[in-house]
Design a protein that fits this description.
flat, 0% strand, mainly alpha
Length: 169
C-alpha cells in the first residue's frame, strides 16, 4: 500500500511547481503594477496630500524607480526580454502548456485558397460536404476596344486626326 502511494502517475510527473510555470506572467504583472503606482497613483496621491496639508502643491513627485539612473527599468527589461526569448525557444522546441501534443501536420498560419484551388475547405468541426455538382468557372473576356486616334470633332462634324509631334521639346 505504501509503495502504491509513493509511485507518481505520469500526469503528476509532468506537473511543474506553480512557481516554475507562472513566474514569467507574474514578473510582467508585477512590473506593470510598479510602473502604474510610481508614475500614476503615487503622483496623484502626493499632490492630494500636499493640497490638504498646505493648500498648494510645492514639490513634484520624484519617481522611485528612476532613482539610480533607472536601473530598475533596465533590469526588468532584461528579465522580461530574456524570459520572452526563452519561452519562444521552448515553444519552438515543442514545449507547450498543459502537455497537449499537436499532430506534426497541424499548422498555425492560415493560408487562403488561391483562385485555382478546387479543394473543399472545412471550417470548424463540421464534416466536409461533398458537392453534388461541379459549377463551371466563369471566364473573363474583355469588352473594350482600343481608343481611336481622333482627338476631337471639326466644325464640319468630322473627327480631327491626332496631332503629330515631330520632335520632343
Amino acid at each position: 500500500m505504501a509503495e502504491e502511494i509513493r509511485e507518481m502517475s505520469d500526469s503528476e510527473k509532468k506537473k511543474e511547481d506553480w512557481m516554475n510555470s507562472k513566474w514569467r506572467p507574474m514578473m510582467g504583472w508585477m512590473y506593470m503594477a510598479v510602473c502604474m503606482a510610481d508614475f500614476i497613483l503615487f503622483p496623484i496621491l502626493w499632490s492630494i496630500i500636499q493640497v490638504h496639508g498646505g493648500g498648494e502643491v510645492k514639490m513634484q513627485w520624484q519617481p522611485i524607480t528612476l532613482q539610480g539612473a533607472g536601473l530598475f527599468h533596465i533590469a526588468m527589461g532584461a528579465v522580461l526580454g530574456i524570459a520572452a526569448y526563452g519561452r519562444t525557444q521552448e515553444k519552438m522546441n515543442g514545449a507547450n502548456n498543459g502537455g497537449i501534443q499537436l499532430p506534426s501536420n497541424a499548422g498555425t498560419t492560415y493560408i487562403p485558397p488561391s483562385a485555382t484551388t478546387t479543394a473543399n475547405i472545412n471550417v470548424g468541426n463540421a464534416p466536409a460536404a461533398t458537392p453534388s455538382y461541379a459549377a463551371p468557372r466563369p471566364t473573363y473576356t474583355p469588352s473594350y476596344s482600343a481608343p481611336s486616334t481622333a482627338v476631337g470633332m471639326s466644325s464640319t462634324g468630322k473627327p480631327m486626326p491626332a496631332p503629330q509631334i515631330d520632335e520632343p521639346l
